[in-house]
Design brief:
This protein is an alpha/beta fold and about 375 residues long. The chain has two domains: about 240 residues, Rossmann fold, CATH 3.40.50.300; about 70 residues, Orthogonal Bundle (Arc Repressor Mutant, subunit A). Helices cover about 35% and strands about 25% of the residues. It is built from twelve helices and 15 strands. Helix 9 crosses helix 11.
Length: about 375
């Protein structure tokens, strides 16, 4: 019978050191805790009830032209002003919403695209919500941190966290409770969206930011060309605490819960867009829509939004119809009008008679 041999701790330490491994001894990252310390941990602190808590990472995705940014702005105003989200004002009862926001939240909105058009959307929302608390609780940033494994050091997640640690030492500005990243694609430049290993590192960086800053993060993302699911690896959804999707619903839209980690999935919420100033705002379930006030995006709006989202790509009429949810005939007619108005142009590929379309050259030159 073969006898099992053992080594003394000192022998193991010497062997580990000779192999380049750390010497044996306590390590602060791997210290086990007992049962009482586990069950006495505080419950999750929700910032938006049943949706996002501190340290959470969420995603809102949709096809182009499906009101992602409008919805994010609506959430931002409710968060800053402590209004329960997905709600409306009732003359006799005041503001009522589905998802409680117990405290006013400081929101950091990060985007590096379409800033001039985005400001019109913010002004439209301010027309309805007012500006109470916005100076104290709203911040924006036009430099997108890069979560790519090979990103430039000055734009990396480490650099972003270092900056906020510096702000903490200075005592201002107030750290964010909620960060909105518009868009996920712009924060992952150079990363293969379908590469599981790279997307795993991206999601780990997002979680690290959320945990270190004790905040929640909501990213805005696109669907693939099919329009049925988000674009990218399954590692993205696996790492999310919340995932929401916007789909067409009649003349309006429906916000659907695709995943929520620590709560029950909630029922879809319908909304429309209604014109306000030079833009539009979100109205939930037509609760406070005046007769004739509803303004939903036209087919031209949807196509133009798609072309702006992908300025360097060309699309067939069939691809555009699938992406926007419109009929082929409606899309063809709208493309003709967009071409006449100088917003789109036809592209003849390989000498064939079949055309594709893309954003007009004059607009591509100024597209971010």
């Amino acid at each position: 019978m073969k006898t099992k041999t053992t080594s003394s701790p000192s022998t193991n330490s010497n062997q580990a050191a000779s192999n380049g491994a750390p010497a044996m001894g306590p390590h602060p990252h791997f210290w086990p805790m007992d049962w009482s310390s586990f069950v006495s941990r505080p419950p999750k602190e929700y910032l938006i009830d049943r949706m996002l808590g501190r340290g959470d990472v969420g995603m809102l995705f949709a096809q182009p032209g499906h009101a992602k940014t409008f919805l994010a702005i609506d959430l931002m105003f409710c968060a800053c002003q402590q209004r329960d989200w997905i709600g409306a004002y009732h003359p006799n009862r005041g503001w009522e919403g589905r998802f409680a926001i117990s405290d006013p939240l400081t929101v950091l909105y990060i985007t590096d695209e379409g800033l001039s058009g985005l400001s019109q959307r913010f002004k439209a929302a301010a027309h309805d919500y007012g500006l109470a608390g916005m100076d104290q609780r709203f911040m924006w940033l036009d430099r997108m941190p890069q979560l790519a494994p090979r990103s430039a050091p000055e734009l990396s997640a480490d650099a972003f966290l270092h900056q906020w640690r510096y702000f903490k030492q200075m005592g201002k500005p107030t750290p964010p409770d909620l960060i909105i990243l518009d868009t996920f694609a712009n924060a992952t430049l150079g990363v293969g969206e379908n590469a599981t290993d790279e997307m795993g590192m991206v999601m780990a960086d997002l979680k690290r930011i959320a945990v270190d800053l004790d905040c929640a993060i909501l990213t805005l993302h696109h669907t693939g060309k099919s329009g049925l699911d988000y674009r990218g690896s399954s590692a993205i959804k696996g790492a999310l605490d919340l995932q929401m999707k916007i789909v067409r619903a009649g003349a309006g839209f429906s916000l659907q819960c695709e995943k929520v980690k620590d709560s029950e999935a909630w029922d879809p919420a319908g909304f429309i867009l209604t014109r306000r100033l030079d833009s539009a705002v979100v109205l939930w379930d037509n609760l406070n829509a005046a007769p004739g006030a509803v303004k939903t995006p036209s087919t031209q709006d949807l196509i133009f939004d798609l072309l702006q989202q992908y300025p360097d790509e060309v699309f067939s009429a069939k691809e555009i119809a699938e992406a926007t949810g419109q009929t082929a005939t409606t899309v063809t007619n709208a493309l003709g009008r967009l071409t006449q108005n100088g917003k789109a142009e036809q592209v003849l590929l390989g000498g064939r008679t079949r055309f594709k379309w893309q954003l007009a050259a004059a607009l591509r030159a100024v597209s971010p």
